Amino acid sequence: MPNPLIAKLEQFTHLSDDDRAALQNLVAEPLRCYRPGTDIVSEGDDPKVVRLVLAGWAYRYKQLPDGRRQVVALFLPGDLCDHTVFVLSEMDHSIGALGAVTLVEIQPATFETLMADHPRVTRALWWEGLVSAAVQREWMLNLGRRSAGERLAHVFCEVFYRLRGIGLTQGTTCDMPLTQTDLADLIGMTPVHVNRVLQMLRRQRLVELKGRRLTIPDLPTLEKAALFNPNYLHLDHVGARFDAVGQHPAAAARYGA
Amino acid sequence: MPNPLIAKLEQFTHLSDDDRAALQNLVAEPLRCYRPGTDIVSEGDDPKVVRLVLAGWAYRYKQLPDGRRQVVALFLPGDLCDHTVFVLSEMDHSIGALGAVTLVEIQPATFETLMADHPRVTRALWWEGLVSAAVQREWMLNLGRRSAGERLAHVFCEVFYRLRGIGLTQGTTCDMPLTQTDLADLIGMTPVHVNRVLQMLRRQRLVELKGRRLTIPDLPTLEKAALFNPNYLHLDHVGARFDAVGQHPAAAARYGA
DNA sequence: CGCATATTTGAATTCTTTCAATCAACGTGG
DNA sequence: CCACGTTGATTGAAAGAATTCAAATATGCG
Fold it and tell me: What's the pLDDT tens digit per position in A166-198?
């Protein structure tokens, strides 16, 4: 089974063959599969392992006692739940499977060994954690200050960028397994309103969404409508500073090599 | 200068005298003071140091091109900006000083040494990072799904809990240097609406707010109104599992020693 | 084909914002 | 000590955005 975490981390830094092998090795830990709509982790659970999504989409969510629900993160292939979760005694949120999800359950010790032996991987994992925190902040800006239309457009931009980073887009299209109800829980609106706003985006030819597939005919225009600035995804190969100069094509370009 | 980070981490785990001394040592790094309303870090900066707030309140915020602003985190004394920020090449948000703020600028190397030599401190710092991520998630739930009244009440509960954890409450009162405009940027509303909602909370005798001081006459009742569940602050001394049994009073209680 | 799930539509209501003014608190200089 | 300017808090009325509730269509799957 290929490990999409490698593709993800290579957006940040150049990895040696040895680094890649070590990451590939994570997939040797126990695999789990989940049916669409089931919970992978429930609020209150004791998190004993670190989870890495290999295939399918999952999402973190929180719920109020009366049932109101907010999706607080999306896990795409290659996404890792916090690599230090196991120090907590209790989860403060749940994780659900959107479609069919395959993930690995990694023992804390495996991670600690990996990080002790591979400093470049350690940096890359730090980067991974910082990016997911940055995504959370961007979502707060989304929820608090963007209009409904901007919000929905922003989600589409982000998902497209993230999927593209791990090679899961096909031209101008990508998967979009979220229902309008899921989208509503993601951007803090009602499903009815998501529907109306989506129709607006469609009328403006900013997106096409049908049969669980998303098409973005003109990404720059959608970005403008969303006030989308990809800086928060930190996809600029900043880790190049930890590379040997010239090792990585993008790093080489950036540093004029 | 006392180091409030020690008090903060001791909410999670028991520290040895040696651990405490090492943390105290952080305060030997260069101190900086900022005037109210000034920026400590600006979006686009290259983060070369890790910052630890010693006194005063600061806040992270993000802004849209047209000026709409969202506060995405509050830094109270003892709060640390991400202890691995320096792997990024560019900040995706800004940090501003609310009142007068004193902080230390810690070199990455200092941190790495501290963590290499003090495994218990390392765990505690991981916990710190996980808690701030959890706070962000709770804020998303706040922005996306709580009503205006619940949102405002929730902010008051959280601030009170966090200040109490580091010994900065006095009975039922604490500082509250945020103006109504600041609160608006925090909970994604307009200042006008904050004002009206605040009046509602006052009428219900849930809070008193005057002269930059907050009084919560009956915390449990405010918590109910806010749908506040403190689990996300992870203040349950979970780290006790990394303590020698019996070392820490709360841990001892939990484990029946 | 038929059920279950997801999307779409309409109308009425509720919540927030907007815009404009007014009021209150506070620190400064005369 | 008070006038004055600045900032923050408060109020009102009207416009705008989003939700609610209910019903009607689509769509996908066994």
Answer: 999 999 999 999 999 999 999 999 999 999 999
Token pair for A129: 């954690």
* Closest-lying nucleotide for B211 based on CA to C1': C25
Distances (CA, A) of A173 to A13, A101, B152, B219: 26, 21, 40, 50
* Neighbour tally for B177: CB within 10 Å: 14
Q: Give phi and psi for A193, each to the nearest 5.
A: -70, -35
- Please give the Cα distance from A219 to A161 (Å, whole number): 10
Alpha carbons A224 and B40: distance in angstroms, whole number: 29
Query: pLDDT at residue B149 above 90?
Result: yes
Q: How many CB atoms lie within 10 A of CB B46?
A: 11
* Mean pLDDT, residues B60-89 taken together: 97
Q: Does A141 touch chain B (CB under 8 A)?
A: yes
Q: How far is the CA of A41 from the C1' of C6 (A)?
A: 26
Express each pLDDT in A112-154 by its tens digit: 999 999 999 999 999 999 999 999 999 999 999 999 999 999 9
Helix axes A148-165, A191-203, angle to 10 degrees: 80
Strand D contact at CB of residue B196, distance < 7 A: yes
**Contact residues, chain B, for A239 at CB < 8 Å:** 87
- Provide, in whole angstroms, the distance separating residue A190's CA from nucleotide C10's C1': 16
Residue B236 pLDDT level (bands cut at 50, 70, 90):
confident
Give pTM, 2 decimals: 0.93
Rounded Cα–Cα distance for residues A75 and A140 (Å): 17
The phi and psi torsions of B60 (rounded to 5 degrees) equal -85, 140
In three-state secondary structure terms, A147 is coil
Query: In chain B, whose CA is at the least distance from the CA of A187?
Result: B144
Query: CA torsion sign, B109 to B111 to B117 to B122?
Result: negative
